[in-house]
Write a structure and sequence with these properties.
The protein is of the alpha/beta class. Helices cover 42% and strands 19% of the residues. The protein has nine helices and nine strands. It has a nine-stranded mixed β-sheet, with helices on both faces. The chain is globular and about 45 Å long.
Amino acid sequence: MGKADLHVHTSHSDGMCDVPELLDYVESETDLDLIAVTDHDSLSGAREARERCARGRYRFAVIPGMEVTTIEGHILALFVEEPPPSLRPVEETLAAIHRLGGLAVVPHPFTWLTRGIGLRHLRRILASEIDGVHVDAIEVTNQTPAGRIGARKARRLNRDEFGLAEAGGSDAHFLPVVGTAHTEFEGRSVDGLRTAITARTTRGVSGRHPSLGEIGYTSVVRQTYRGIMATPRAMGWGPTARSFVQRIVSVR
C-alpha cells in the first residue's frame, strides 16, 4: 500500500519550511511515496516543489495542489495546473477545480478554529445536481488542533452518510509534522492515488503528532502570525475581509 500526505504547507504561504527543506525531509525522514503541496490560495510552492523533485534524485513524487479559500470554507484542489478562484462561493470553486481536471478534498471539516466547511454546507454540496459541483474526498485525519476537532465526526458521517473517499493529511506547517497523517492507497504512483480516490478505496491514517516542545514554542507563535496573514497576503486585505463577512452571513 502506498502512503501520500495530501496536505502540506511551505513558506510560500504559512508553512515554516522552504521547498528544498521539505523535499530533503520527506526523502530522509519519512516513508511517503507522494506529497501534495497545498499552500493557501497559491500554486507557487507546489510548482517549485514539483520542478525541484523532478530535477532531483528523490524516491517520491509531488502532486500539485492548493488550499483554496472559499466563502464557506477551505477546499483542497489536487492535480491542478492552474489556480481555481479564491474567495468565491464554494460551488463556483468546485466547478472550476473539476474543469481544470483536478480533484476536490474537504480539509478539516466541522471545525470552528479555522475556515472549515460546515455540515450544512457540505450536505448542500452533496445534494447538488450542478455539473462539477461535488467533492471527491473528505479528510478524516488532520494533525492540526483545528483539524482534530472534527476528525472523528467526519469519519463517522462519511461512513454512515457521505460515502466519499477518505483522505489523510498532516496539514503540516512544521517539518516534524510532515507524514504524521497520510492517505493509504493501493499502488505507489500518482496515477494509482488518483484512481483510488475516484474509486473511493483510500484510507485516512493518523500517527503520532509531535509535541509543542519538539516543534518549538517560538516557531508555533511565528506560524500563528503567518497563518493569520496567509490569505490577506495572497488575496489582499479588502477581498479577504469581505469574504469573511460573507462567511458569517452564510453560516447563519
